[in-house]
Automatic annotation (TrEMBL):
Gene Ontology molecular function: oxidoreductase activity; zinc ion binding
Residue stretches making up the Enoyl reductase (ER) domain: 11-319
Any single Pfam family the record assigns to this protein: ADH_zinc_N
Gene Ontology, cellular component aspect: mitochondrion
SUPFAM superfamilies: GroES-like, NAD(P)-binding Rossmann-fold domains
Gene3D superfamilies: Medium-chain alcohol dehydrogenases, catalytic domain (3.90.180.10)
UniProt-recorded name of the protein: Zeta-crystallin
Domain of life: Eukaryota
Length: 333
């Protein structure tokens, strides 16, 4: 089959090309083989290709097939979506617990755009930061794949959302999916602007940090506020060192949330997270956000990753791997 195989980490994303490789072997009896129709591009893929992610030290080392999120058709002809290493390929094998049925009102491309991002953001906001109706949340990295889910989850439970972005088009997009206020982090003193947007200028109740800006986040929190660290998309590998007195002065709580590891240690908790998120999906409260540019076939993975690196994309960029797969096998009900 064809796939984007990483036999050595690349320094230039434009060097990524599809090549012939063996289909993945069966590892356990719970494995399912999925014919991939769509794959999503994420920040993690960009780091994995270059060997810059913490997992590249032990868990994800060459040779491996790139890509972490997919939608496709399983062996029973059902439309499924999910996560697992190796999605930039014609087929993938994953444990059946890593897939979910595509909701009837979504196409495969839409399900692929949501992937695990909805569950990650739900877990971070609801299970970890305990966000509640009537509160205000600040979302850093609001226009990205995780951020667009975080905005909609917060709105679904009746929370005021302040979204932080670095581009006008992205600002319009996040308003379109429910953000109440938009702040541009390219403007000097954007944290003060956030404070002015909160009740009594006291700060937000919760910060969702997908970019790695904890000190800025703490500046925007109210006394005894909560901050959840989800990712470091804005750091380019140079992780921030946080001054501990910032945590103490406002008596804030700083949490981390690692979705994959949580799932390995506490599968039941992660199931609850998925169930909570999918309930919102079934109630029609979550809209997939697909970046406007079309990427066709594995040969476009490299261009899509470059667009992601240059921060042109918003929501999720999606590559169509097999455009006929979805309609040919399982019509949308
Ligand atoms: N904790 C977990 O379990 C988990 C799971 C999946 C992913 N992650 C991590 O979460 C992070 C976000 O993932 P994603 O898939 O949402 O990434 P993404 O789709 O690439 O989005 C990243 C966002 O960060 C913003 N950004 C980039 N540089 C920035 C900067 N210097 N300052 C402020 N904002 C900046 C970008 O928006 P602008 O263009 O507007 O700046 C973009 O919207 C990544 O670090 C990823 O590795 C964590």
């Amino acid at each position: 089959m064809k796939a984007i195989l990483i036999d050595a980490f690349v320094s230039n994303l434009s060097d990524l090309r599809p090549q012939n490789t063996k289909p993945p072997p069966r590892k356990s009896e719970n494995d399912v083989e999925i014919r991939i129709t769509h794959a999503a591009l994420s920040h993690v893929d960009m780091l994995y290709a270059q060997g810059l992610h913490q997992n590249n030290r032990r868990h994800v080392v060459p040779p491996f097939i790139l890509g972490t999120e997919f939608a496709g058709i399983d062996e029973s002809g059902r439309r499924v979506f999910g996560g697992g290493l190796g999605s930039f390929a014609e087929t993938i094998r994953v444990d059946s617990s890593s897939t979910r049925l595509v909701p009837n009102h979504w196409t495969n491309a839409e399900a692929c755009a949501v992937g695990a991002s909805g569950a990650v953001s739900y877990g971070a906001l609801i299970s970890v930061a305990n966000l509640k109706a009537g509160e205000t949340v600040l979302i850093l990295g609001a226009s990205g794949g995780l951020g667009v889910m975080a905005i909609q989850i917060a709105k679904a439970i009746g929370v005021k959302v302040i979204a932080v972005v670095g581009d006008e088009e992205k600002g319009e997009m996040v308003r379109g999916i429910g953000a109440d206020e938009v702040v541009d982090y390219r403007r000097e003193g954007w944290e003060e602007r956030v404070m002015r947007l909160t009740e009594g200028e006291e700060g937000v109740d919760v910060v969702y940090d997908g970019v790695g800006a904890v000190e800025s986040g703490i500046k925007c929190l109210k006394y005894r506020g909560r901050l959840v660290v989800v990712g470091f998309a804005g750091r380019g590998g140079d992780i921030e060192k946080v001054r501990a007195n910032r945590v103490l002065l406002k008596s804030v709580a700083v949490y981390g949330y690692r979705f994959g590891e949580d799932g390995r240690r506490f599968p039941e908790r992660t199931k609850q997270v998925w169930d909570g998120f999918m309930k919102m999906v079934d109630q029609g409260k979550i809209k997939p956000v697909i970046y406007k540019k079309k990427y066709e076939g594995l040969r476009d993975v490299s261009e899509a990753l470059l667009d992601l690196k240059e921060r042109r994309t918003w929501g999720r960029a999606i590559v169509t791997i097999n455009g006929h797969g979805e309609t040919e096998v399982a019509p949308k009900l």
